[in-house]
Amino acid sequence: MLFDVTRADSFHAVEKWKSDLDDKVCLSDGSPIPCVLLGNKCDLPKSPALLNGAGDVDAFARERGFVGWFETSAKENVNVDESVGFLIDRITENEDALSLTALRRDFDNGKIHVMRAEEADEVDYPRMPRQRRTKKNDCAC
Asked: Where are the domains of the chain?
């Protein structure tokens, strides 16, 4: 999840974005999926509202369930590979622990569950009706 360090409003939106993610996607045991917080544009001057320092972002990230956070610059390629590698490591830790290979959407509450393959085999997946294409636009939507 990425915010712009030059715009305080994007940092303040992170709390809602993380809540939305946690409400919609979880591991099969109900725990949140690993998510890293990225403060992008670290090559530019920070917003005055964000100048309290890394300690505040550390606490913010920890309190909201992020597995870590990085200051990044896509323009200057700062911490891009490191942050992606860190997230991949956290994902594979969960994958090794749970042997995750499947996703399931719970239509009752709109949440997506990441689950073990053997759990997925036991799920009766609801089927969405196929839509007919029209000659007018050859589109199913």
From this structure: 2-97
- Asked whether the predicted pLDDT for residue 94 surpasses 80, the reply is no
Say which residue the tokens 């294409």 belong to. 133
Local structure of residue 68 (DSSP, 8 states): E
Beta-carbon contacts of 98 under 8 Å, excluding residues fewer than 6 positions away, are: 27, 28, 29, 114, 115, 116
The fold adopted by the segment(s) 2-97 is Rossmann fold (3.40.50)
Is residue 83 packed enough to be buried (19+ CB in 10 Å), middle (13-18) or exposed (0-12)?
A: buried
**Residue 127 pLDDT:** 45
| 56 touches 116 (CB < 8 A) | no
pTM of the model: 0.68
For 99, phi and psi rounded to 5 degrees?
Answer: 50, 55
16: pLDDT strictly greater than 50: yes
Return the residue matching tokens 């690993």. 34
For the stretch 22-56, pLDDT in tens is 998 887 777 888 999 999 999 998 887 665 555 58
